């Protein structure tokens, strides 16, 4: 088996990314990337490679830890199928409008940003909560779902890495401790302050939420959303004389939405505490998320039947349609995970890391580690995988050269977040598209200009930090 292929190891990911963006056929692009990766592993035995790729797809599908991912992905589709088709979401949106919580576009965008920041326990729950709660409000006010996807994607991972009282913190703490750092916790705390990309991304997202700033492809989708909202408003106007009927709000329906969503959020840290034997950071993240979402789904079903007397047949149909609607993104997630496993076996990340072996001035190392981590995360579609590759490189490098360890740790973490944020094969990027109800490639294309701008600012900041070492 070939595991040291140099630059050729990057081909499966890069070709999958280029093909996905060029053709918008994400599933076929990822499937081709998986098969190509295994063909390269078994060259020149192409048949063995294709068979290995097929087996790998099956193993990923039936892996117990991944089954929880498929379970919560389909369950979240079922949950919001029930809330939407069951009618409770309609009353929830009316209540938000009546209470003047999100009467304007600015408040709606800030509402999304604040939700994303508040739910810092788990990135996928943050995305799901912010995206699905905000989506009907955005449609009503004429804000594009593409901007919603950008806002939720730009708050989830950055805030999880900046407030590491979660599995992210535990994972990185373990990586730092394994490199012989005397005080891993203090190092991680200092690295949080120096994680320039996460900070810039959050600040930029807040600026976009406040101003509504759009540039690049986002402008077109914002214009189309405004036109759709105007058309919907005209359609809703009464056609004859007389006053428009006052829309009623069923408090039980509103309570159903609130209780199901709040339960989904609060159950995650509770389950992390239970599964971690009293320690949130040691808890089982996927189990916790799965239990939280399924519980929220049960509450939504019972609440819809109780408050609006929604027929059982309608609820079953809503569950099936919601899960079916989300199935393509679950398939994309499955293929992306399989491709990530294959690229790690190929040694793509290790090859990129070896680039640092060249003689370079020390002041450029923070920026270079940031960019190298970004390329790694973009290619493999995983921030955690990038952390596992880059931290064992960055920490010994800092120690051997007498450089500040927290700065190089921060650069590696920041690069992992940016590359994951920008990559079309990243699970968080896929889930942001899913939660916002937007085409995946449209989300990637509209988010990329903002991410690149934040990355440029971050690179400059790391160059300045390197000069100040």
TrEMBL record:
Domain of life, source organism: Bacteria
Annotated Pfam families: Na_H_antiporter
Broad class of the protein's primary localization: membrane
Membrane topology term: Multi-pass membrane protein
InterPro entries: Na/H_Antiport_NhaC-like_C (IPR018461)
Domain Na+/H+ antiporter NhaC-like C-terminal residue range list: 159-467
Alphabetical UniProt keywords: Cell membrane, Membrane, Transmembrane, Transmembrane helix
The keyword Cell membrane appears for this protein: yes
Spans through the membrane: 6-22, 27-47, 67-87, 108-127, 188-213, 253-274, 286-306, 318-340, 360-381, 393-418, 448-468
GO cellular component: plasma membrane
Subcellular location: Cell membrane
The name this protein goes by in its record: Sodium:proton antiporter
Organism: Aliidiomarina halalkaliphila
